[in-house]
Design goal:
By secondary structure, the protein is an alpha+beta fold. Helix content is 60%, strand content 13%. Strand 1 and strand 2 form a beta hairpin. Helix 3 runs antiparallel to helix 13.
Length: 333
């Protein structure tokens, strides 16, 4: 049965220049390549002949770019440059004592990658939750959803927002809700940018919004909230460590172990004192936040290039479409 099926199945012979079917039909590969090259050349020639249409597309693109540059909303970027903080560095310079405390401490290392923790906190739920309680910041984040008369939240009445909500519902997205932790976190992620400078010890943090004063205010609030969070965490860990070491010391009988526990208590007390110092804790600010006086977007050159490219694409499409419509239909065999 399988032999009969294999006999009836069409076979194809292949050489360098053609495909030869079982019935003797020859399909030339070189002819196919030439046909494709001819189509490309004829299309290019057609486009070049319609220089006026291409020029019209370029002019239209320039006009569209100018209109977009003037009508698109302006954005402003507030920036700050930070480096590992002096207090955190001092805490990490515990030497053997710090190593002993971390190796014995059940609560883990006291300062684990402080700068990395700080940068990650900027876009975390913890910071978003803290900002959520600042009414002024949240109203500036979502101004179209705040009803100043009733002092309450409601869906944005704009047409664009209504269309977006409908699209979210159709695609199975979440129903509108007043600003919460998830929405604040998403807002921060969308508008915040973190990039290293030079060898990576310096970090530039920038935040872009449509309001220059709000951009500076929100960036300052983010940096302060993250620094306060790490400071409070260090203070709580130091207090818990002191209690733990003291309980171990009360039960210790070996003098060597008692000396090690006393050293651990002293180290934890040192950390608690440093956490209470009224100075930047996790990072040091080398370039403070300032209100931007120039807009960072839209990029005029990028908008113009995109608009010209769009105008040319529309012109080419119209040229090819008009030529296709002008040709008489092929007779049916």
């Amino acid at each position: 049965m399988s032999d009969k099926n294999s006999e009836n199945r069409p076979t194809i012979a292949l050489d360098a220049t053609a495909l030869v079917l079982q019935d003797g039909t020859i399909v030339s590969l070189s002819a196919s390549r030439e046909s494709g090259a001819n189509i490309f050349r004829s299309t290019a020639t057609l486009i070049i002949k319609n220089k006026r249409m291409l020029l019209l597309g370029i002019v239209g693109g320039v006009l569209l770019g100018l209109i977009a540059t003037w009508t698109l909303p302006r954005t402003y970027s507030a920036r700050i440059v930070v480096e590992p903080g002096a207090i955190a560095d001092t805490l990490n310079q515990g030497g053997l004592l710090n190593h002993l405390s971390n190796s014995l401490n059940p609560f883990g290392a006291q300062i684990p990658q402080m700068e990395k923790d700080f940068l990650q906190l900027l876009q975390s739920n913890a910071i978003a939750s803290k900002l959520l309680h600042d009414q002024k910041i949240i109203v500036e984040m979502f101004p179209e959803e705040w009803d100043s008369r009733s002092k309450s939240w409601r869906p944005s009445p704009s047409l664009t927002a209504s269309v977006m909500r409908s699209a979210h519902l159709i695609m199975g997205g979440r129903v509108w809700s007043p600003p919460d932790v998830d929405r604040v976190k998403e807002y921060i992620k969308t508008h915040l940018t973190i990039s290293p400078i030079s060898d990576g010890s310096l970090q530039e943090i920038s935040l872009t919004t449509g309001n220059p004063k709000f951009a500076a205010m929100l960036l300052s609030a983010l940096v302060q909230a993250a620094d306060d969070y790490l400071r409070n965490r260090e203070s709580m860990r130091a207090s818990a460590s002191i209690k733990y070491w003291q309980a171990q010391l009360d039960r210790a009988t070996s003098q060597d172990l008692r000396n090690a526990l006393i050293a651990a208590i002293v180290d934890s007390q040192r950390r608690a004192v440093f956490a209470d110092v009224d100075l930047p804790f996790s990072v040091e600010v080398t370039d403070p936040v300032s209100v931007p006086d120039r807009s960072s977007g839209p990029k005029a050159l990028l908008v113009m290039v995109g608009a010209i490219f769009l105008g040319l694409a529309i012109s080419v499409f119209w040229i090819v479409y008009r030529e296709f419509r002008a040709k008489p239909p092929m007779p049916r065999s």
